[in-house]
Amino acid sequence: MQKMREMIDANTLVGEPITTADGITLIPVSKVSFGFVGGGSDFSQKQSTKNGFGGGTGAGVNITPVAFMIVNGTDVKLVYVTPPIMSTVDRIIETVPDVIDKVTDFISKDKDKED
Questions:
Q1: Could you say which of 38, 56, 65, 111 is the most buried, measured as most Cβ atoms within 10 Å of its Cβ?
Q2: 77-103 burial, b for 16+ CB within 10 Å, e for fewer?
Q3: What are the pLDDT digits (tens) for 23-52?
């Protein structure tokens, strides 16, 4: 357990930031899943083992890259490594910030034309 705890920390889920030459910061995001299993059996004295007990344990960890956060000044975007399964509502919610930006730009350009 202690070794697994050492392997999996906050930096495993949200990785170390990577800054490019042009000032863009990439932050990897991963999904971590792990499992444990254990079992045992008590043998009768007729078996060949001296103490009559057999057992075992196991553990596994799976780390899967999910996305990258891209930070460019005040702009932050989440780019998925593989597209997530989304419902229609999720897709609408995801596009709202882009729509607001486009409407705001359109209004700004329209006001600049009036001046």
A1: 65
A2: eeeeeeeeeeeeeeeeeeeeeeeeeee
A3: 899 999 888 887 888 888 877 666 555 666
